Amino acid sequence: MSAGILSQVRVLDMTEGVAGPYAATLLGDMGADVVKVERREGDWQRSAGRGEPGPHGNPQFIALNRNKRDIGIDLNAAGGRAIVERLVARSDVVISNYRAGVMAKLGFSYERCRVLRPDVIYCTISGFGQAGAYAQRPASDTVLQAVSGVMSVVGEPEGMPLRVGFPLIDMTAANQAVQAVLLALYGRLSGQGGANIDVSLMAAAASLMCGGYTEFLSTGRLPPRQGSQNSLLAPAGAFEVAGGRHISIAVLRDSHWTKFCDALGLDALAGDPRFASNAGRVQHRGELHAVLVPLLKSQPAEHWLQRLHAADILCGPINSVADVLADPVLAACLPLLDLDLPHTAQAMGAPIRFNGDFFAARRPAPAQGQHTREVLAELGYTAKDIARLLGDGSAYAESG
Fold this sequence. Notes:
It contains 18 helices and 14 strands. By secondary structure, it is α/β, with parallel strands linked by helices. Helix 1 packs across helix 7 (168-189) and helix 7 packs across helix 8. It is elongated and about 85 Å long.
């Protein structure tokens, strides 16, 4: 089974929020034994969202923290740090996403973890990396969307910059961290030992904009704010249709332009030299839209999508999440996971089919301190030791 491929890999998850937790979850999806260390204050993501979170957190936390166990530890207590030392010593991978320097202050720098586990794969995710004048600055997906330039290209050309409505940079950093960890695990097989991996949200964001950054470095031209249109192609973007709905159309090649015009009955446009090439269509986008916009508003989405699909033109409805889940064909493309939680029946999983199957949710997101006693026992603590650690506050367990 694909879920068991990393079953011999142990991951210590010392993260909060989005990027770090999701990276650990993806490794858990692949079969790794993931233990999440959670301080008494709790991962702030548990309560971030609309409505009161349940014992397993709100839907955002649940989506980001499946396939792991949770141990409650006071990292400021000597007894708590001793527990983490045992966890590090038996872990193949340590993931953290605290601000630069925090892990060292806690006593778990890369150098210290290498003493505890010489071939450890140590992965840090932070806003601006582990060095430099900005390393100590707090960071989040929202802030990095601004600082990196992502927000500068989102929004209407004459409007204000807009934030992408989900943690795009966090999720990208998580996936890149997982790629790096898998690379390091492969490297260990060939005798290269452990690794020190550093993924910054800043670099992750810039990598998403590699085309825009490269164009500026080459030409000095800034990538523009595009609104709902693709600045590199025409027609390409969102268009309103009858009934107030919107569809997306993308004409990639000049040969597609001829088919597009034929599908929409626009013979005059097909022969217009202004629109014969993509460069011309981009240059004369205003004149082109003066014809297309009123035409597309004259008929409903189904009418235009049927015609465009028949002509093999890239197009689709602009859906909400509800629209996607209501379409059985689209829903069948999705890794919807069944969860054994009272307030969350399903969650979205990793988008990978491995030998035909998506990864499963072997464990739902844990309650805070849910597995403290279980993990302490695995680390060799006796029942008396566990009672002492819980009693002196070095560790804590799920109440009730």
